[in-house]
Amino acid sequence: MDVKEIAQELVKGCRDGKAAENLDRLYSANAVSVESVAMSGDGRTASGLAAIKGKHDWWDSNMETTGGSVSDPMMHGDDRFAVIFEASGKEKATGKPFAMKEVAVYHVADGKIVREEFFY
Question: How many domains are there within the chain?
Fold first, then answer.
């Protein structure tokens, strides 16, 4: 797949609730994920597909998402794209509500996502 096809598949998977299912298909085994701030004591960077899957598992275990949106991908050259995510819900442990908006920038090489960066 080229970068535009990967971008479209990622967005479709997020909209259809299949983001985790897309990880094996769209991400490199050595992909890196970088958050704006440290999450749950694990630091800002998750290296490798297993660590990225762990981030998804952590989110699903700790947050209940009740609404949100995923923008169309915004292309940048032949190796990057960005997506705007909005989400609302509550923390499962406390019931505390949240509303968030973030920009994700994805870097693609050799037909796979190799790096994702989140800005919020």
Answer: 1
